[in-house]
Amino acid sequence: MQKTFGYKFTNAIIYTVLAIVGLVTLLPFLYVVIVSFTDPTEYLSKSLIIIPEKWSISSYKYILSTEMFLRSLGVSAFLAIVGSAISIIVTSALSYALSRKRFFGKKFFLLAILMTMLFNPGMIPNFLLVESLGLIDTIWSLILPAITSAWYVFLMKNFYQELPDELEEAAKIDGSNDIGVFLRIMLPISLPAIAAFGLFFAVGFWNTYFNGVLYINSEELRPMQVVLQMMLISASTNVADPSVAAMLQSEQILPPETIKMAAVVVASLPIIMVYPFLQKYFVKGMLVGSVKG
């Protein structure tokens, strides 16, 4: 079919608007990257840098040699890997159990999970619960309160319900029990869904901030996002944590802003590198458990 002038003109406008929106969205991150690679002496001598004349990786060398930042990077990596693995196991197992018709107490558990979506107890009850469990200032205080999501449980439950019952019946005839059916049949089939939710959980644990501020007191257990926030405050005000202030001011030749930008790039890089490989699972995850006509 031959495209009319109006059709081409409309498409040109749409693509132009999308290109402008994409450019505006990308510019702040590009500026952060440019400043992080700018030579410190050039940054101090100019008020605005678009394309630096001298490039430098001194800020990256510094933050990657700083014990505090490397320790926080390790804490966030532990949260993303271990926390995501535990969350996937709990969410998939709970979802599969709730999807079975003969599960005793199914309606009660579904109602209890639904209540957590409708009524959030708030910050103080959550803090009192974590404190009563003895988890304050432990790594598990960053994992257990965020171990699963009611929304993800309902999505995966619907996904398991869409699978044909003949799969389970055939496995039962071959002698498998419920655990065997789940491990040998259901988990391999649901790998795309598990990969999608694993990405969601990994991003959530990697970006852990509020729980780190609320439950963590020790400097050794601070996640990376908390350290970055403290660096931002230290770079823009005179009031900051002494350890962060010492980190930013120990090298007088390096401006705090370049160190801050380099830290932001290092914090964002792992998710940016992983996301393209899991993008197709991310798209599938948006449709997992959806109603099909």
Automatic annotation (TrEMBL):
It is a multi-pass membrane protein. This is ABC transporter permease. One of its GO terms (cellular component) is plasma membrane. Belongs to the binding-protein-dependent transport system permease family. It comes from Paenibacillus solani. Keywords: Cell membrane, Membrane, Transmembrane, Transmembrane helix, Transport. Residues 73-278 form the ABC transmembrane type-1 domain. It is found in: Cell membrane. The keyword Cell membrane applies. It comes from the Bacteria. The chain crosses the membrane at residues 12-37, 73-96, 108-127, 139-160, 181-206, 259-278. The keyword Transferase does not apply. PROSITE patterns: ABC_TM1 (PS50928). SUPFAM superfamilies: MetI-like (SSF161098). The lineage of its organism: Bacteria, Bacillati, Bacillota, Bacilli, Bacillales. One of its GO terms (biological process) is transmembrane transport. Its main location: membrane.
